[in-house]
Structures
1.
Amino acid sequence: MDKTVMAVKDRDCVGCKACGMLCPVGAITYERNREGFEYPIIDANKCIQCGKCLAGCMADKKPDKGNSGSGRKLYAARNKDKVILKSSSSGGIFSALANDIIFEGGCVYGVCFDKEFRVVYKRGTSIEDIESMRGSKYVEAYVSMDILEGFVEDVKGKRKILFSGTPCQILGMKKMCRQMGLSTENVTWVDFFVCSGKVSSYLWEEEKQGYLKKGQLEQVSFRSKRKGWKNYEMHWKAGGKSYDYDSLTYRWNKFFGNSVARRKTCKACEYQGRGGADISLGDFWYSAPLPKEWRDNQGISVVGVNTDSGRKYFERIQGQLEVREVTDLIKEHYKYSDYDEEEEDTKRKTFWDIYEKRGYDALCEQYAKITWKERILYGMIRPVLIKTGLLDLMRKKK
Ligand SMILES: Cc1cc2nc3c(=O)[nH]c(=O)nc-3n(C[C@H](O)[C@H](O)[C@H](O)COP(=O)(O)OP(=O)(O)OC[C@H]3O[C@@H](n4cnc5c(N)ncnc54)[C@H](O)[C@@H]3O)c2cc1C
Ligand code: SF4
Ligand code: SF4
């Protein structure tokens, strides 16, 4: 039996890159598959079959004990700072948590756009760095080995750290540290309450091209609140001009909603709620039971406070927030659904064959066309439902 991570199936590998850090002889590197997702490859000439990579891989799906779910409290919360709230995806809680760590002299690991508007993990030590991480980018984020090495050094140096990422990335980092014998008492882990998954970076490179032709790309936001939180838009600024599109009728949303455009692990994700994060963040769409002043369409987060250390941290940032406990209002709703792998693989093959043979435009034509029905529903009826508050009332309690 293979003692290395070559034994891990594609549908279980989340691309956390812990294995590359654990290999004592540097035998593991990463290559993109034809869909643009990175997977480990092993240099057989270097590998000594020690088994350390597999032993430290989180794909065994064992939940992290930090997050048992018992005693978890849920809150609706939002940042009092209106500028931060407006530029955040939901309630701006990430910024409140991150700013606190920066003021304490610590560092924050989160995701930003680099100069070429690639989506990448970054180490932040200033308020400007936190601003660059603000806002969700619905694309798989690139994790460099430099970032992971920096993280391990920070853990060893007992620096105060906030690590924010997808539930699977956090599970990967926690297991890596445990395998290295490192204590992570100095780390606060922040993941997503619900995670819809990561779209291929190849598709993102293609999507950007259309705007690069218009001039230098200056700004991108997947969750612009120009018209409000619930009417979120995709915003581009290129060549000095702004382009804003209702997100639900913008083609990226079709890829975001299509499992074959996302990493294979995301289809039946088994990592949500199991990563052991101290705090989990998401959108609090079910705002009907909240007082009227909260229903102003500026953004509300659901905050899952999962551990004692998360509780202490959340208490510390209360001054920056408006907060209401909602533990009894919503339930955890992670779905560990399984699926027909053969059927999914066939759909995947067809999708990526079209991309490879006929290009991005053909792919969009086939998979990302917005129908008239959708335009009427999302573009005309939905804004009215939001304005009148009917959407809130129609939303089912989760
Ligand atoms: C890929 C993805 C899928 C998500 N799916 C859902 C969902 O289905 N339902 C839901 O309620 N919430 C989801 N979220 C979370 C939600 O979009 C907000 O990020 C969350 O509510 C925090 O909002 P905020 O206003 O507090 O902070 P924001 O300022 O919006 O914080 C953004 C945070 O997300 C991190 N981040 C941004 N892009 C990425 C990325 N590509 N990978 C990893 N981390 C990233 C940043 O580092 C920062 O910590 C998802 C987030 C991501 C990144
Ligand atoms: S450690 Fe991470 S990148 Fe390596 S095989 Fe396991 S899940 Fe994949
Ligand atoms: S859906 Fe699951 S596997 Fe995919 S990014 Fe989110 S936590 Fe990771």
2.
Amino acid sequence: MPGPAHRPAAGSLARALAARAVDRVAAGGATLDAALAASLAGVPLEDRDRAQVQALAYGALRWFHRYRALLADWVDAGPRDRDGLLEALLAVGLYQLDAAGQPDYAIVSATVDAARQLGQARAAGLVNAVLRRYRREGAAWVAAAGAAPDVAYSHPRWLAEAIATDWPGAAEAMLEANQRHPDLWVRVNRRRTDPGSWAARLLADTGVAASPAAGLPDALRLAAPVPVTALPGFAEGDASVQDGAAQLAAPLLGALPGMRVLDACAAPGGKAAHLLELADDALDLTALDIDPVRLARVSEGFARLGLAGGRAVAGDALDPAGWWDGRPYDRILVDAPCSATGVIRRHPDIKLLRRKADIAGLAARQGQLLDRLWPLLKPGGRLLYATCSVLRAENEVVVQAFLDREPTAVATAMGPLPGLAEPAGPGLQCLPGPGGVDGFHYALITRAGPP
Ligand SMILES: C[S@@+](CC[C@H](N)C(=O)[O-])C[C@H]1O[C@@H](n2cnc3c(N)ncnc32)[C@H](O)[C@@H]1O
């Protein structure tokens, strides 16, 4: 611990808290949201300092694979083998040097002090040496590593390879997009206002411009991030935060007023709310989710948006006997749990949490969801299968296998959606990249038979 005369450098606590969060993800397998909540619990911090902890943890995780490769090269045995927390702290410090928001000497001394705060006083010299060397030699080290995906794009090799196999022409743009901060997209509630008027209010209130996107009539892409509470009319339900690609789900499913609709994996409820908004709230919509904590957000969203046609129900979509009343649905949305490899820019922890071996299990569950929910659909009804994955194994492979084994299932054309999505087997794929949207897959399937 520092002696009485030592005053910790400003911001060292923020680095220490960020390092703990990064370690909880990298070594403990926690999600970044959970890791940040655990790190910040009970620590009295100003909002600005909390935001700094969050920004440091996100940035360090976004570039974690690069830093891990560098540390394995530069530090005997690699700090990971000795101490994950030290590796996490070094990642936070290296990220700060890359982000260059502060003079280098201030970053180095605050990170060294953070090592002491984390009970790593003996590593203070190592932290100091690595960060100073990075200032001198970091750029040359990265250049020498060339196109190795863990260094160039900070992705695990298995994932970079899977993306390159599935999307040979677009892989590089995708990996690069995954490393950028995501745009903030808003869905304007047309029951209350229109995108043009709302964008004018946003500009007047915050100085931030918002632009429309072709093929997404309710969507606006903001030129800079704005806190949710500063979005005009947010509390009154004028707008919601929702990525552009996610805003395709409701129009593709096409639920019409009077229909009975199931959203089988509904939380936090963005797509369910959009379905209701588009049908002027005149749906009988069951918003099902297995996670009651996440489900609470669905009800909150419906209340904020003044939507009465949706009912949040806790239940397992794989076991309809537990919650289904036996009356079939006109429309079903299956926004299936997936690898989330299309939303890495929002959730950089995905790159550490997912393993190659997870994909087969996810695909099996996705197929089961289709099998179990299909009998709940009326003849003539439509099911939209959605994932936020960019891996074909979870998308067209799952859908095609279902079409092959289910004689009443008929693939239904969508789009085209130029600039937003491209054909992928029987469905459509949005890719993270220049369009600024998340990676999403959609497949529309109609149940054969008279309606
Ligand atoms: C991709 S998220 C859904 C996002 C949501 N549709 C939206 O737009 O806000 C997947 C959801 O599926 C839920 N889930 C996972 N397995 C489930 C199951 N067997 N039954 C019902 N929900 C499940 C998860 O709790 C999670 O909330």
